[in-house]
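Our platform keeps sequence and structure together, in a single record for each protein. Because each token names a local backbone shape, the row as a whole describes the fold. One such record is reproduced below, unchanged from the form in which we store it:
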Amino acid sequence: MNQYPEQIKLLIEKLSRWPGLGPKSAERTVFYLLKQNKEKLDEIINGIAKLKEEIKICDNCFNISTQNPCPICLDKKRDQTMVCVVAEPQDVLVIEKTDDFRGLYHVLGGLIIPSQNITPDQLKIKELAQKVEKGNIKEIILATNPDLEGETTAMYINELLKNKGVKISRLAKGLPVGSTIEYADEITISSALKGRQQI
């Protein structure tokens, strides 16, 4: 037999489109799944199905949660005048682990990447500008990754908001250039938050 059955080929093809999974990793994943008993597979299938059923996007900050608005947005003890702008929901969790930031968040849903045709209008940038227009926000902290896409996005947002009467700061460069917030440790993130600078 020089080819896998059609069901296996199809699943490998679909999984290889996932972030971080190329054809070889997708193939290993499919064969891992084949080794599991029915109960284990049912747990995985049900877990995936519940993602869309039980996880919601917060209408205020666009973070993921089991409720809408999310607990962070509902927490009146948080500083309602300070908003930390991040690319993805994973970044919120990393910053929250530091226990140093007590403001609100705004999740962009990605970064500006012209080479992949991801433009500002595809992100939640317009919604951020609308929050600033309401006049309650005093500081925007740009916490995008210190790589080309993160810097491009931060510069775009800075240009958009710089004359709106709000302080705009950027995480300090305690984060190594080219790294991602998701993989940074709490101490690095904490130092970057404390050492943020106005743009």
Observations:
- Residues 38-54 form the longest helix (17 residues).
- The chain has eight helices and seven strands.
- The radius of gyration is 20 Å.
- The chain has two domains: 6-54, 58-198.
